[in-house]
Amino acid sequence: MQIINAFLVQAQKGELKTSSYPKEWSGVKMKVSFGMGAPARIPWIAFIAPEMQASKGFYPVYLYYKELSTLILAYGISETEEFTKTWPVEIMNSTQTIQAYFDEDVPRYGDSYVFKAYRINLGAEKIEYIYANDNKIATEKDIESDLATILNYYKNVVSIEVTKTDSALSQGRFYMEKQLEDFIVHNWEKTELGKEYDLIIEDGEPISQQYKTDIGSIDILARDKKTKSYVVIELKKNQTSDDTIGQLTRYMGWIMDKKGDKNVRGIIIAADYDNKLQYALKVLHNVQVFLYKVSFTLDEFKIKETVQ
Fold first, then answer.
1. Residues 232 and 264 both lie in one domain
2. Residue 133: Cβ within 10 Å count
3. Which of 61, 25, 56 minimizes the C-alpha distance to 45?
4. Given Cys at both, which of 66, 173, 255, 269 links 264, Cβ 3.0 to 4.6 Å?
5. DSSP code of 288?
6. Comparing C-alpha atoms, which of 129, 105, 100, 104 is closest to residue 117?
């Protein structure tokens, strides 16, 4: 409850730092966002299974619609990249979407489903939660019980999914390369890319990852810090070099046509560098290749001797 109170207060102040919030809650990942670069219109707290990411998955999430003074605890669905599975049909057939609940256009997350809706009164000394469906005050125990209920349901759904032989989770699709894109975006400022390029932010929300076009989704779309030209970044994931080059140049052509940027550049991020890439770069002077390396260390765990 204290975490949610702190989240609501910070959302009103427009502060963006999230380092003080837990990274885990009740056995799942916890991720908090107030926006990047500028305050988001809809800050959120998501509770995500280890096999998923905020950009690709389904998960319980608090969505704070500040302009409507409403906090939604939702059956959340990622807007960035569609996951192979989603909430059970029983939820989608019996539960209102956020768009339908408000009966008006909402800035983000309208396709997620409402589990609980609270009207929020931010007092000087106390925050009041009121159930929107019956105007009853939601106590601290009520808030905790609501969150525990949806989390337990979620963990049960994910657990069942893992046992299915045709499940994306059971087939191990979330190996390292599949998570590389998320890692790069989340650690952008610490990478070589972050020194020269900026992620694209709109209304306080990052839109660079899986940037949607009418010919597909660009893995990451960035802009040069100095020239402001676009940079199309594609990851070579389980595909041939020819496929990656074709995909990259197709998106670069789209940017040239749709964004009017004749100086668009391209970057390929790969685990290795083969002859096909090398020959392609001889004529593609506006394309670079970055190689990623992964290293692991093993530290022996030793039991500390107790002092008698």
1. yes
2. 10
3. 61
4. 255
5. E
6. 129
215: amino acid identity, one letter: I
Block residue for tokens 């469906």:
133
DSSP string, 159-223: HHHHHSTT-TTTTT--SHHHHHHHHHHHTGGGSHHHHHEEE-EETTEE--EEEEEBTEEEEEEEE
- Can you give the CATH number for the domain in which 122 is found? 3.30.920.90
Longest Cα pair distance anywhere in the chain, in angstroms?
75
Fill in the amino acid letter for 131: Y
Q: Please give the structure tokens belonging to residue 193.
A: 């890319």
| Mean pLDDT taken over the chain | 86
301 domain residue, yes or no: no
Q: Which helix (H) or strand (E) holds 44?
A: strand 44-48
Contact 60, 186 (CB under 8 A): no
pLDDT(94) > 80: yes
CB atoms within 10 A of CB 308: 3
**Mean pLDDT of all residues in 2-10:** 94
